[in-house]
Structures are given as C-alpha cells and as structure tokens.
Amino acid sequence: MENKNSIIINKKKLLDSQYNKKGLIEGLLSGFTFALNGLFISLALDKVSVENIITLSLVGACLNDVLAAVWLILYNVIKGRGKEIYRSFRIFPGKVVCIGALLGGPLAQSGYLIGMKYAGVSYAVAISALYAAVGAILSRIFLKQKIEKRVALGIIISAIGGVVISYIPPVSIDNTYFYLGIFAASFAAFGWAAEGVIGAFGTAVIDPKIAITIREITSGIVFLLFIMPAVGGYTTMKDIFLDVSILKIFIIAALFAAISFLMWYKANNSIGVAKGMALNSTYVAWGIVLPVLFLNSSYNNNLFIGGILVLIGSVLVSINPFEKFVRGEYNE
Q1: What is the pLDDT of the chain when averaged over all its residues?
Q2: What angle do CA 179, 230, 237 make, to 5 degrees?
Q3: What residues contact 286, with CB distance under 8 A and at least 6 apart?
C-alpha cells in the first residue's frame, strides 16, 4: 500500500513539474512574441507614407488591436468558446475588463507606438517595461497592497534603469523628439499597469482567454469609432488595406500580439500572475536586441545598461527569484 502511494505521489510530482515547465515556456514565449509584434509593427509603419507621426502611430495601434481581436475571436470560435465571448461581455466582470481595455488599449498602445516612432523601438520597449514597477505602486495606492522591501528595491532599480535609458539619446535621433518619444512610451507603462490592476477583478471570474479577447475587441471598437475619426485615420487605413504588402505585415504583427497575450494569460494560469509577469518582461531584452539586428536601430551603452536594470527590477517586483526559481517553488 505504501509503495502504491509513493508511486501516485511521484507521478503527481512529475505531472506538476511538466505543468510548471510548460508554464515557464509559455511565459518566455509571451515575451519573445511581444517583441516580435513590436518589430513587425515598426516595419509596417516605416512603409506607410504619412507625414503626421501621431496619426500614423494611432492608425498602427488601431490596426494592431483590431486584427489581434480578429485572430483571438477566430481562436476562441474554433475552440467552441464563441458564445462565451458574448455572454462575458454582458456580465459585470466583463464590463470591468472593458474599462481596463481603454487604458491598456488606446492609451497604452498609442503611447507605445508613438514612442517607437519618436524614440526608436528599443527605447520605447525598455521604457514601457516599467509597467511592472508602476503596477506595484498603483496596487499600493488603490488596492492597499503592501510593498515589500524586495518590491521596493525592484521599483527603485527599474526607476534608475528608466533614467539611464532616457538620459542620453542616440546620436541619430533628434533630442526634442527623442524625449517626446520617451514621454509617450511612459504612457504605455502607466496604461498597462492600470489595466492589470483593474483587470485583476475581471479575470478572476472570466476565462483569461475570453477576457483578453474582450479587451482587444473593446480597444479595437474605441479606436475605430472614436479615435480614427478624430485624427483623420480612415484615409491612412484605406491606403494600408489597398497595399497588400503592408497589410500582410500588420496581419503578422497582430498574430504575434494575439499569441503573446494568449501565452501570457496561459502562463499566469499555470504558474501564477507574478511569475507570468516576470517572464513576460523578458521582452525588454528581445525588444532591444531584435531591432538592432534587423532594423539597424540606433543605440548606446545607456540603452543596454538601463534595459538590464529595468529587467532586473521587473523580476524583483514580480517575484522572489531565489524562492520561485532556484528552490523550484512554482506554486503560489
């Protein structure tokens, strides 16, 4: 009897280990695909001939969220969850997710892409990754969650990293526009952090795969009905849809966005939100390296040093690395 119990316990440990490893892979994949999303969006925007960078960035943000919503709807319909999307929209937690979507979509995504155009992809990525530290601060203010010493240290390190990144612009970028880009990217950090705080309630009730779909649908609708008319974006969108080569790049970018969101929420479900956030924040490293390799983006030592500091700070804010990874304590 004892041997039989031992076999059952060992099998459970093995299954738990495999489940946790899967969650770790999903978390890392979410970071990598999010960096790819930024890379492809930047490629697409560079091919669009629009003088007004603000309008161009907002159109890019709109297409990214609308097309990502299409990918996510297709995914859920194929999996038999189409009716669940409609049902979740109508309940209170779904409406909470919609509110978070306004911050994480139009506000954050627009700031992120404007930051890309004015400061460069790598810099916008690194600044936006401060969302983990900002989220911890907002949680303290609005949710009255205590900030531990480790989290406080992570916030300080992330803040120092942000200062290091934005202190000296690369030679090839105009100083005025560079700092405007850094300022815009900071809206992404705030918007995604606020979305996380607000959305925590909604995702506690709604299937995360449905919640992220609602988020993208809401953001896409707001972009299409309110923001595009205000900035004259329909003409640019029409031009993009008529140019198949550019539209293909946007579709690929949105696919990577959809995959990133799905992997992030799956990782959160498998190994916990804190570790999922820490693994997702590795997009900082990929977001610095990929543009340098494939877009010939400008950079300096401040970017790499600051990016590393932001990454370390984000991990410290999210988890205790020693307890969660070194000791292998995956379950929260």
Answers
A1: 85
A2: 85
A3: 31, 32, 34, 35, 36
Residue in the block written with tokens 């705080």: 197
**pTM for the predicted model, two decimal places:** 0.84
Q: How many other C-beta atoms lie within 10 A of the C-beta of residue 168?
A: 14
- The Cα 311–Cα 170 span in angstroms is 21
Q: Give the separation between CA 258 and CA 70, rounded to whole angstroms.
A: 9
Determine contact, residues 259/33, Cβ cutoff 8 Å: yes
Listed residue (124, 106, 99, 166) closest to 37, CA to CA? 124
Distance CA 163, CA 168 (A): 9
Contact 317, 156 (CB under 8 A): no
C-alpha–C-alpha distance, residues 51 and 59, integer Å: 13
Terminal alpha carbon distance of the chain: 31
pLDDT digits (tens, 9 = 90+) for 8-59: 555 555 555 556 778 888 888 988 999 999 999 999 999 998 889 999 999 9
Whether pLDDT at 277 is above 90: no
Closest Cα to residue 260, out of 292, 216, 300, 298? 216
- Going by the DSSP 8-state scheme, the letter that residue 332 receives in this structure is -
- Please report the pLDDT score of residue 106 as a whole number: 93
DSSP state of 270: H
CA dist., res. 279 & res. 324, Å (int)? 12
In this structure, what token pair is assigned to residue 195? 């979305």
CA distance 212 to 195: 11
> Are 56 and 45 spatial neighbours (Cβ–Cβ below 8 Å)?
yes
